Amino acid sequence: MSFQYKCWEWVGKAFGTAAANDPLIRVQRFLEEAIELAQALGFSHENAHKMVDYVYGRPVGEVTQEVGGVMCTLGSTCEAIGVDMHMAGTKELLRAFKMIEVIKEKNKLKPKFGPQRRRTTMTGKFFRGRFNVVCGKEHKHVATLKFGLFRLGEDFLAQVCWKCEGTTKYDYWGCAICGATGLLQGNEAAPLSVLNQVLVAAEWGTT
User: Fold this and answer.
1) CA distance to 6, 7, 43, 174, per residue, from 149 (Å)
2) I need a surface site. Which of 2, 95, 126, 206 has the fewest CB within 10 A?
């Protein structure tokens, strides 16, 4: 059982599967922890605000690459300060499992944020390494993919699956060519991070 699965499992036990599977809630908590690390290392409040303005002033990145960047920068930071990142993570997860009730109470005191823009065009759900299109929304999914690809432009290296034509359905188990996502990158199923990017582009193109 991988470390990241154990982390996901802990969140589910502490806050429920909805919170565990919501990317916006998860990234909000990630951002909190990243800021707390920066604060602990002496990074100033003023410079943190400058960094937010700098990042949000640049084009949106690709999810998998940004995750890789997080891992690389955390690794190099830990090496610079003499912390074993794997040992620190394991120790914290063990502590968290023992303190679920305490952490749940602390969570109630955290600031409440306003509603964030969510994908109204969502035609399915991401869940544990898969994307499942809601039954009856297959043709809407095709339209969403096409609009997202249009918004991303001709240079974006992805296309609607030629086998299922984006519906994700070709046989009982779904289209094996695109991994039941409706999207290809080259001759292979597009990674879920690429699919997410296309869906996000479609959402931000709607009013």
Assistant:
1) 35, 33, 39, 22
2) 2
User: Phi and psi for 157 in degrees, rounded to 5?
Assistant: -85, 75
Separation in Å, CA 15 to CA 25, 98, 102, 149, 150: 11, 14, 12, 35, 38
- Asked if the model's pLDDT at residue 194 lies above 50, the reply is yes
Distance CA 181, CA 186 (A): 14
| Domain limits, the chain | 3-107, 124-204
Region 166-192 average pLDDT: 82
192, with CB counted inside 10 A (0-12, 13-18, 19+), is middle
Q: Are 164 and 170 in contact (CB under 8 A)?
A: yes
Amino acid at 45: H
- Name, in order, each residue with C-beta under 8 angstroms of 149's C-beta and a sequence gap of 6 or more: 156, 158, 159, 160, 198, 201
Q: Which of 20, 23, 8 is nearest to 200 (CA)?
A: 23
The partner residues of 154 in beta bridges, in order of sequence, read none
More confident residue, 113 or 66: 66
Determine what percent of the chain is predicted with pLDDT higher than 70.
Answer: 87
From 51-60, 62-71, 103-112, 142-151, the region with the lowest mean pLDDT: 103-112
The residue ranking higher by pLDDT, 69 or 109, is 69
* Beta carbons within 10 angstroms of residue 107's beta carbon: 12
Indicate the length of the chain as a whole number: 207
